[in-house]
Specification:
- There is one protein chain.
- The chain has 20 helices and 7 strands.
- By secondary structure, the chain is of the alpha/beta class.
- It has a domain of 229 residues: P-loop containing nucleotide triphosphate hydrolases (Rossmann fold, 3-Layer(aba) Sandwich), CATH 3.40.50.300.
- The strands form 2 sheets. Strands 5-4-6-7 form a 4-stranded parallel beta sheet. A 3-stranded antiparallel beta sheet has the order 1-2-3.
- A hairpin with a 4-residue loop joins strand 2 and strand 3.
Length: 365
C-alpha cells in the first residue's frame, strides 16, 4: 500500500520527468531552428553572370526552355540548379542517424560501383535481391529534389511526393548517396555516420561526365566534347568545381568515419578495395565470398545488370538512349581518345595547381 506522502512524492517525480521531457523537446526545437538560421546565414547563392549563362544556353537549351537557371554557392563555389536555394536548408539540417551509411562521390567517379559494393556488404551479400531490386530503390539519391524540381509539373510522381520527407521516414539503417560537396551537407554527417567516398582522376572524369550529360533527358546537353571540357574547366557544369570537391575530401581522408577509395585502384585490384570497405564496415569475408563479390562487381556483369544500369530511369523518361548502357566503358585512360594537346596542357596545369601542393597523385593510364 502506498501512503499519501509517497503518492505525493511519486506525483511530483512524474511531473518533474514530464517537465524535463518537455524542456528537452523545446531545446531540440530551438537547436534545429538555430542550425537552420545559421546555415541560411552562412550559405549564399549567386546567379551566374549573363556571359556565363550565354555559354550554357546553346548546349543546355532544354533547361533554359523551362526557365531553369543556375547559381553558385558560397561556400564551395559549386554550380547548381536554381532549386538548391529552395531545398538547401533541408539538406544542411538533414537528421543524420548513427547507423546511416553514405556514399559520396563527384559525378562519374565510380558511384554506382561503390554503391553496389556497399549495399552487398551491408546486406550479407544478397546477390539475388540485388539483381531484382533497382539500385535506385535500394540506395536513394539525396540530391534528386534539386535536380528535378523544375519538372515537377510534368512528372506526377514528383509533384505528389515529398522525397526528402520519405527518406526521413526510412527505417534504419539507411543507405544513401550524394554528389554534394561536403561543405553543403550536414555538419555532423561524418561525426555521426560512416561515409564511403570514391575519387577518380580528372581526365577520365570529364570524359565520362560528358557522355552522362548527353544521356540525362532533364538537361539534354547537345554540344561537343571540346565545349563540355571548357565548361567543366570553367566550373559551369553541375557540381563543379571538381578540384574543390576533391581537395575538400582529401582533407578528411584520415577521419575515422571515412573510407576513401580510388576508381583506379578498384580497376587494378578490386579484391583489395572490397576488403578495405569490408574492414571499414566491420564485415568478415571469406575468400569464397570475396570471389563471389568479384564476379558480381565485374564490369561485364555490372554493365549487363538492369538493376544498376538505370533502366528504371529510362522508362520514366529521365534518361534517353535505352540502347546505350548507363555504365559505358569504365576504363582508366579513355581520356586519351578525346583530349587534344591543348586540353591536356590546360588540365595538367590545373592538376599541378590544385593537387601538387596537397600531395595528391592520380593514375591516368
Amino acid at each position: 500500500m502506498i501512503n499519501r506522502n509517497n503518492a505525493g512524492a511519486i506525483g511530483n517525480s512524474q511531473q518533474c520527468v514530464f517537465k524535463q521531457q518537455k524542456c528537452s523537446m523545446v531545446c531540440q526545437s530551438l537547436l534545429y531552428i538555430y542550425k537552420v538560421l545559421a546555415n541560411m546565414a552562412t550559405t549564399t547563392f549567386t546567379p551566374l553572370s549573363e556571359e556565363q549563362l550565354e555559354c550554357l544556353k546553346p548546349v543546355y537549351h532544354k533547361v533554359f526552355d523551362k526557365r531553369q537557371s543556375f547559381v553558385r554557392t558560397t561556400p564551395g563555389f559549386v554550380t547548381m540548379p536554381l532549386a538548391i536555394e529552395k531545398f538547401h536548408h533541408r539538406l544542411r539540417n538533414w537528421s543524420v542517424r548513427q547507423d546511416d551509411l553514405y556514399v559520396l562521390t563527384f559525378p562519374k567517379n565510380g558511384t554506382t560501383w561503390t554503391q553496389e559494393l556497399v549495399w552487398l556488404l551491408q546486406n550479407d551479400c544478397k546477390f539475388e535481391e540485388a539483381k531484382h531490386t533497382t539500385l535506385t530503390n535500394r540506395f536513394p539519391f539525396l540530391d534528386i529534389p534539386i535536380l528535378t524540381d523544375y519538372r515537377r509539373d510534368e512528372l506526377p510522381s514528383l509533384k505528389q511526393c515529398d522525397y526528402l520527407a520519405t527518406l526521413e521516414e526510412m527505417p534504419s539503417p539507411r543507405l544513401m548517396k550524394s554528389h554534394f560537396h561536403l561543405c553543403l551537407l550536414p555538419d555532423d554527417l561524418m561525426e555521426k555516420s560512416k561515409v564511403v567516398i570514391c575519387l577518380r582522376n580528372p581526365k577520365d572524369t570529364v570524359v565520362s561526365y560528358y557522355h552522362h550529360e548527353k544521356r540525362v533527358k532533364n538537361y539534354g546537353y547537345t554540344g561537343d566534347f571540346q565545349t563540355f571540357f571548357g565548361l567543366f574547366m570553367d566550373n559551369l557544369i553541375r557540381y563543379c568545381s571538381y578540384f574543390d570537391y576533391v581537395k575538400e575530401v582529401w582533407q578528411q581522408r584520415n577521419h575515422p568515419n571515412v573510407c576513401l577509395l580510388f576508381f583506379e585502384d578498384m580497376k587494378k585490384d578490386l579484391a583489395s578495395s572490397i576488403r578495405q570497405v569490408a574492414k571499414f564496415l566491420n564485415k568478415n569475408l571469406s575468400d569464397s565470398m570475396v570471389d563471389a563479390l568479384l564476379d558480381h562487381l565485374s564490369f561485364t556483369k555490372m554493365k549487363d545488370n538492369p538493376a544498376v544500369n538505370k533502366e528504371d530511369l529510362v522508362l520514366n523518361g529521365m534518361y534517353t538512349n535505352k540502347e546505350n548502357h548507363f555504365m559505358r566503358k569504365g576504363e582508366v585512360g579513355d581520356w586519351k581518345n578525346y583530349f587534344t594537346d591543348e586540353m591536356n596542357r590546360r588540365m595538367d596545369e590545373a592538376i599541378e595547381k590544385h593537387f601538387k601542393p596537397i600531395g595528391l597523385e592520380f593514375q591516368y593510364d
